[in-house]
Amino acid sequence: MQRRQPSNPASLPRGRFPASRWWRAGLLVWLLAIGGLSGCSRDAPPTQLLIENVNVVDPVKGLLEKRQVLIEGGVITAVADASQTVASSANAERFDGQERFLIPGLWDMHVHFVYDMNLTDHMADLFLDYGITSVRDTGGNIDQLAELRRTMPAPKPNIYISGPLLDGKFVVYDGTDPARPALGTGVPSPGDADATVGALQAAGADFIKIYELIQPDTYAALADAAKRRAMPIASHVPLMMTADDAGPMAGSMEHLRNIELACASNWQELLSQRQQRINDFTEGLGHTLRAGLHSDQRLPAIAAYDEERCNHVLDRLTDTIQVPTLRLNTVTHIKPFEHDDWPAAASALPKVTQDAWRARIAGLTQIQPVDPTFARWSLFLIERLLARGVPIGAGTDTPIGLGIPGYSLHTELELLVQGGMTPQQALYAATVTPATFFNVENEIGQIGPGMRADLVLLQNNPLTNIQHTRGIEAVMVGGEWVR
Questions:
Q1: Do residues 140 and 166 lie in contact, with contact meaning Cβ atoms separated by under 8 Å?
Q2: 18 upstream amide cis, omega within 30 of 0
Q3: CA-based end-to-end distance of the chain
Q4: Radius of gyration over alpha carbons of the chain, in Å?
Q5: What is the dihedral of CA 167, 171, 173, 175, to 10 degrees?
Q6: Does residue 59 contact residue 431 with C-beta atoms inside 8 Å?
Q7: Distance (Å, whole) CA 445 – CA 59
Q8: How far is CA 447 from CA 70, 120, 288, 459, in A?
Q9: Domains and CATH numbers, the chain
Q10: What pLDDT is recorded for position 17?
Q11: Is 113 exposed, middle or buried (0-12, 13-18, 19+ CB in 10 A)?
């Protein structure tokens, strides 16, 4: 039996795995050095892989020390203590975990592969570099996304797609502004809902994404059409509705956006004003309409926060995952580009993206400080969600708002903990909760028998410090080491 050794953690850059264009050559040298590719070392490939001497960090069970994990056919078949015999095959391959910490592969619940086409072909590799083995693409051209997923070379993360943002008569992401690609499409009336959802499913969509300028009756029709087809629903809160009305029809809601209006003491007045402005809008750009409403109403709504009213709203959302995207909501306030590890992380991006982002960062540093109210409100709301039993999922909106694929998910985890979650709860938000959205929590997201072998080996225990999720030594997808 052959025994693999994880590479020396001292040889890896602190805070991220080496860029994907270099890892393949390094992996080949490493495997040759230990005999992992020696054709004469065995007559047949191993049918079992046994990870020994490892501490399992399960998002439900917590820390399980000194365990061994048996994998067959890409699936975990046993998790046991060191005293048990679990490998039945004489041809089993052994991997020494060296008392490191094994977590399930991470999810990013909110990404956009086709937002920046210069970055599209690099995103999958970057996700794997940072231990993200599953992603949920929440908006883009369905044909592009389906083709991308079909032709993307392995190894790659598990990719779930929604197709376009389903908007109303006016479409926020209609492609008229070069800075905002055509991620959306209009669903003008309830009668268009069934055909729209059916066409998306036929084209390969795993779920649908409803956006902000949809009318309430069309929202309900889309939700009904999706549920008849067993397609999960992600949604922004439509501007014509409140979160407590729209939320129960969706499986997830994004960004914590528009919850502030529903939680205001004068929510009825604000909603009436908003509905009137939308109804009176007969010509112009959807983005302009949406941006004006957010600009005029968001801060006054937060200032009018009413906890009793907000408790009522949140109690209606206990079956609707909230994906806060704190990384995005706080980007102009926390400024990740000023962190010590940002230059190394950004260096893995294509040069054209690096140049564009440098210009954006320069612009951000030259303008007056951005009002931090919504950033602080987003962090504040995490504790309120936890207190009312509202599920939370980890997503980033990568690459929007300077979101480095993979890197940003670890920032999101840190912000979730800053907002009030324990490290274990944050891991749950990036493993189990996303799986529940697709009703696959019995197949993925934990380390136990029957679970898909998507795994990440860490240097240190993330339950003691969530920043330890950045110290990645190895990544596995479907039972194969890919990093």
A1: no
A2: no
A3: 22
A4: 23
A5: 140
A6: yes
A7: 8
A8: 10, 30, 46, 17
A9: 3-103+446-481 (2.30.40.10), 106-157+243-437 (3.20.20)
A10: 41
A11: buried
Let me know: does 131 contact 39? Beta carbons within 8 Å: no
Nearest to 138 by CA among 203, 77, 210, 83: 210
Residue type, 166: L
Other CB atoms within 10 Å distance of the CB of residue 464: 11
CA angle, corner 277, sides to 275 and 281, nearest 5?
Answer: 115
CA 72-73-74 angle, to 5 degrees, is 95
The 8 Å CB, 24+ separation contacts for 440-447 are 444/104, 444/105, 444/134, 444/158, 445/59, 445/104, 445/107, 446/58, 446/59, 446/60, 446/61, 446/104, 447/56, 447/57, 447/58, 447/69, 447/76, 447/79, 447/102, 447/103, 447/104
Query: How far is 70 from 195, CA to CA, in rounded Å?
Result: 46
H-helix or E-strand spanning residue 123: helix 117-129
Nearest to 184 by CA among 290, 328, 29: 290
Q: At residue 279, what is the residue type?
A: N
Q: What digits encode the pLDDT tens for the residues 242-280?
A: 999 999 999 999 999 999 999 999 999 999 999 999 999
* HEC letters along 38-73: CCCCCCCCCCCEEEEEEEEEECCCEEEEEEEEEEEC
- pLDDT tens-digit readout, 215-236: 999 999 999 999 999 999 999 9
